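Supplementary Text 2. Reproducibility record for the structural model of the 228-residue chain.

All settings were left at their defaults, and a single model was retained for analysis rather than an ensemble. We include the record here because the model underlies the residue-level annotations in Supplementary Table 4.
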Amino acid sequence: MTRTILFDTETTGLDPAGGHRVLEIAALELIDDLPTGRHYHVLIDPERDVPEDAAKVHGYTRAHLLGKPRFAEIVDDFLAFIAEDPLIAHNAPFDFGFLDAELRRLELPSLPASRMIDTLALARTRFPGLPNSLDALCRRYAIDLAERTTHNALLDCRLLAQVYLELIGGRQRGFELAIQAGDSGHVAYALQGTRVPRPIIVDPVSLEAHAAFVARALREPIWLDGRR
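Retained model, structure tokens:
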């Protein structure tokens, strides 16, 4: 079995070099790319103000975070949860950059870049020229966004877990593992069920972006002049 950790952070701003800090961390445990139900989630006192523009994104103000633990108080639990496993995030360099800045403040080692799996890079490879934000990918894969009114880290992780499965061509929905009793008391597992087709939904904005990408990247694409 392969264990990976899918995670997300919320922050007071966009640049840790400018003094911005982590204020929320959420992480989900995946075994063989499927969520196990185990997760880590914490709100953090960033030890500074939360600018209004950042609060509009994630919904947290300074008042929400007063009395919450500081990063130094949660770091051991967080590092124990992620262990030495690969770390999946959407626009992973952003989240790694903020966590590394927090770790440096405590004179702790940075997270190795070799552990990074960036779902934004995966999406750009699969859908070049199209919008590949988490919202855009959820819409493309018909994943319900009804609860996503702000960028809550735990909810974003749960949505990204579904997106990640689709990006890597993982579990086929509609199939489940059924236990079958075999000879000599052995237990076997078999796929059963009927796969429900899930067409990729492309909205007009994505179609326009793709057309612009094709116009820039390809000269005289054969499908535009009727050739096969």
